[in-house]
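U., I forgot to send this yesterday:
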Amino acid sequence: MSIRPLVILPDNRLRLISDPVTRVDARVRAIVEDMFETMYDAPGVGLAAIQVGIPERIITIDVGARDSEADEEEKKRPVALINPEIIGVSEEMSVYQEGCLSIPDYYSDVERPKRVRVRYLDLNGETQEVEADGLFATCVQHEVDHLDGVLFIDHISKLKRDRVMKKFTKLAKEKERDGA
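Result:
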């Protein structure tokens, strides 16, 4: 396992549409392990493969990491979703303050369906379906968006989105100029 570097805005790879995984094998399981290690190190509660430069339809989520009552091992409730597909959404909406490991230190309220039903392959290549609600539903939608080249800032006002893009473009140019 290894921690992989995160792809940061304004990197154009974040706008790629990820390819389906054709076979769940040792290579895919190794990517998932690296993604969990990277996600926990960041720290975050969700990660899409494209965020570590891999344009494949793989996401990792662990909302248990947000449970402040549990000890470190109890907090871990990891789930890997391969080729996730949202097959149903509730009419009821909810708002969560979202952030993104690829857009560090920026948060904004985003409204999404409160519940979703998602179909995916597990690490054994078996088809699974799960009903997600609360933070888990928000994370699933946020990460599936990544697989389609959509960022959470695409769900906020154009004015706020333009400010974020300007800030991260400036930071990237400064980093490039400084040779980092």
